[in-house]
Design a protein that fits this description.
heterodimer; A: 276 residues; alpha/beta; Rossmann fold; 6-stranded mixed β-sheet; 5-stranded antiparallel β-sheet; 7 helices; globular; B: 251 residues; mainly alpha; MetI-like fold; ATP-binding (chain A); NitT/TauT family transport system ATP-binding protein (chain A); transport (chain A); AAA+_ATPase (chain A); ATP hydrolysis activity (chain A)
C-alpha cells in the first residue's frame, strides 16, 4: 500500500529523510540513446525535517526528480529511498502539492480534505475534525462547502495544502506550488507555509525557479543545471528567520540571495538561449 | 417579466406552428384526411387516453428504451474507462468502435427480428447497440482527457489504482460522458419507434403504423405528437439532471 519495499535500505530513519543515489532519467529515445536526459547521475541526501529547495531553470529536471521521489514515474536507474524503504510507487507518507492545485473539482473544499482521511480508514467523526482542523490551519474556514471553481487561485492552493497535510505525510513534496499565483498572494503563502513548516516540521522538498523564494523558505538549497539536469551546488541557508516579512531585508538574506543568483545566472542565461 | 410570461414567450414559435398547421389543414391544398386539423387531433388524442391504449403502448415502448439505454450506459461507461486505462483493451475495442460507429443501427432491425423475434428482446438489443457507441466514445474521450495530476494526487493520498479509476477518472470524465449519454438518449427514441414500425405487436411505433394503415390519421398524428412530447420531456429532465451533476463547474 505504501508503494515502498523495506529491503535495500541501510539508512536509519533519523539520519536521512530522502536518499537519492545515482538517479538518472531519460525522456524519449530508445535504450537511453537519443531523447532528452532530464537527470544525470543525481546524488542527494535530504535530511529529515529539513526544508529543502530544488532550485533551477525550467527544463532542469527538478520536477522530474520530485515526481520520482513521489513514485509517480518509475525510477529508470539509481535508487530513491526514504526512512520507509526504497520508493517503488506513490504512498500517503509522501504528500504532494502541485502548481496547478489538482483539487478534485467535483468535490467541495471539505470533501477534498476528507479524501485522504477516508483512505486511512479513520472513524467518520475524527475524519471530519481533522479535515476541519487543517482547513482552519490554512485559513479557509467558512469555505468548507465551496467548490474549487468558486475559489481564487490562492484559496485553491490553500485547500490543496490542507488536503495534503490532513493525512499527515512524513514528507511533503511541493512542485512550484505558488508559481501560478500573483506576486502578493505568493508572498503571503510563502510566509504561511514557512509558519506551517515551523509548527509541523516535516521533510519538505520544494521545487522552484525563484531564487528569493528558495532563500526565504529553505534550510538548504540544491542548485540544479539544465540539459542534462545535474546538481551543481548544495547550500545551507543558516539564518535567523524570526520576524516574518522583514527577514528578506536583512543583509545576510540579501547576501545569500546575491550569492545564489551569481551561481544560477549563467545557467539561466544558457537555458534561455537553448545552449548546452 | 414573470416566470410564466417568460416560458410563454419562449414557446411562442410553437404556438405559431400550431396556428399555421390549423390554417393549412383547414384552408390549404391538403385534403382534410391527409392533414387533420388541430381539433380533430386533440379529440383523437383524448379518445386514445380514455381507452388507455396510448398509455399501454407507451409504457411498453418506454420499458424497451429504458432497458436498452440503461444497459448501454452501464456497459458503455465501463468499456470507455477500461479502454482509456488499459492499452490491450483499447487496441482490441477501438477498431470495432471505429467501424461500427457510422453504421446506421436501424439496418440491424431485420437481423434483430431473426435473432430475437417479435418480443421485447429484439428492441432492447437494438437500442442497446445503438446507444452503446456514443457512450463508449464519450467515456473513453473523457477518461483520456483526465488531468494526470488528479490521479497522482489521489494515489499519493492513499487511493489504489482501482479506486482511482472509479473515484477520480470516472467523475473527471463525467462532463464528456454526460454529453455522450444525451446523444444516446436521442438514439434510444429514434430506434425505439423505428424498430416498432417493423417488428412489434405493441408500442408507440406499432401504434403509429397501425393507425396510419387503418386510415385513422388524426389518431396517428396524436400519437406522433405524444412521442415528440415524451422525447422532449426526457431530454429536459436529463438536462436538469446534468446541470445538477455538474453544478461544481459553475463559478
Amino acid at each position: 500500500m505504501s508503494g515502498q519495499s523495506s529491503s535495500g535500505s541501510a539508512l536509519p530513519a533519523d539520519e536521512v529523510g530522502i536518499e537519492i543515489r545515482d538517479v538518472s532519467h531519460h525522456y524519449g529515445g530508445r535504450n537511453g540513446q537519443g531523447g532528452v536526459t532530464a537527470l544525470d547521475h543525481i546524488n542527494l541526501q535530504i535530511r529529515p525535517n529539513e526544508f529543502h529547495a530544488l532550485l533551477g531553470p525550467s527544463g532542469c529536471g527538478k520536477s522530474t526528480l520530485l515526481y520520482l521521489i513521489g513514485g509517480f514515474i518509475p525510477v529508470q536507474s539509481g535508487t530513491i529511498a526514504t526512512a520507509r524503504g526504497t520508493v517503488t510507487g506513490p504512498g500517503p507518507e509522501r504528500g504532494i502539492v502541485f502548481q496547478n492545485f489538482a483539487l478534485f473539482p467535483w468535490k467541495t473544499v471539505l470533501q477534498n480534505a476528507l479524501y485522504g482521511l477516508e483512505k486511512l480508514g479513520l472513524p467518520k467523526k475524527e475524519r471530519e475534525e481533522r479535515a476541519r482542523h487543517f482547513i482552519d490551519l490554512v485559513h479557509l474556514t467558512g469555505f468548507e462547502n465551496a467548490y474549487p471553481s468558486q475559489l481564487s487561485g490562492g484559496m485553491q492552493q490553500r485547500a490543496a495544502i490542507a488536503r495534503t497535510l490532513a493525512v499527515d505525510p512524513e514528507i511533503l513534496l511541493m512542485d512550484e506550488p505558488f508559481g501560478a499565483l500573483d506576486a502578493q498572494t505568493r508572498r503571503v503563502m510563502q510566509e504561511e507555509l514557512r509558519a506551517i513548516f515551523e509548527r509541523t516540521r516535516k521533510t519538505v522538498v520544494f521545487v522552484t525557479h525563484d531564487v528569493q523564494e528558495a532563500v526565504f523558505l529553505a534550510d538548504r538549497i540544491s542548485i540544479m543545471s539544465a540539459r542534462p539536469g545535474r546538481i551543481q551546488h548544495v547550500l545551507d541557508v543558516a539564518v535567523d528567520r524570526s520576524g516574518g516579512d522583514e527577514v528578506m531585508k536583512r543583509p545576510e538574506f540579501v547576501e545569500i540571495g546575491e550569492h545564489i543568483w551569481g551561481l544560477v545566472r549563467d545557467q539561466a542565461i544558457a537555458a534561455t538561449r537553448g545552449a548546452h | 417579466m414573470g416566470a410564466t410570461a417568460s416560458i410563454l414567450w419562449r414557446y411562442t414559435p410553437l404556438l405559431i406552428c400550431l396556428a399555421l398547421w390549423e390554417i393549412v389543414a383547414t384552408a390549404g391544398p391538403f385534403a382534410n384526411q391527409l392533414l387533420p386539423d388541430v381539433k380533430q387531433v386533440a379529440e383523437a388524442l383524448w379518445a386514445l387516453i380514455l381507452d388507455g391504449e396510448i398509455v399501454n403502448h407507451g409504457l411498453r415502448s418506454l420499458y424497451r428504451a429504458a432497458m436498452g439505454f440503461g444497459l448501454a450506459i452501464i456497459v458503455g461507461s465501463a468499456a470507455g474507462l477500461l479502454m482509456a486505462t488499459f492499452r490491450p483493451v483499447r487496441l482490441l475495442v477501438n477498431p470495432i468502435v471505429q467501424i461500427f460507429y457510422p453504421m446506421p443501427k436501424s439496418a440491424l432491425i431485420p437481423v434483430m427480428m431473426i435473432w430475437f423475434g417479435l418480443g421485447d428482446m429484439s428492441k432492447i438489443v437494438l437500442i442497446f447497440i445503438g446507444c452503446l457507441l456514443p457512450v463508449v466514445i464519450s467515456s473513453y474521450n473523457g477518461a483520456r482527457g483526465v488531468n494526470p495530476f488528479l490521479i497522482w494526487s489521489a494515489r499519493s493520498l492513499g487511493a489504489s489504482r482501482a479506486t482511482t479509476l472509479v473515484q477520480i477518472v470516472l467523475p473527471a470524465a463525467m462532463p464528456e460522458l454526460l454529453n455522450g449519454i444525451r446523444t444516446a438518449l436521442a438514439f434510444a427514441f429514434i430506434l425505439m419507434v423505428s424498430s416498432e414500425f417493423v417488428i412489434a405487436k405493441d408500442g408507440f411505433g406499432y401504434l403509429i403504423s397501425q393507425l396510419g394503415d387503418g386510415g385513422a390519421y388524426a389518431a396517428m398524428f396524436a400519437v406522433i405528437l405524444v412521442v415528440a412530447m415524451v422525447g422532449f420531456t426526457a431530454d429536459r429532465l436529463y438536462g436538469a439532471f446534468v446541470r445538477h451533476q455538474l453544478r461544481w463547474r459553475e463559478p
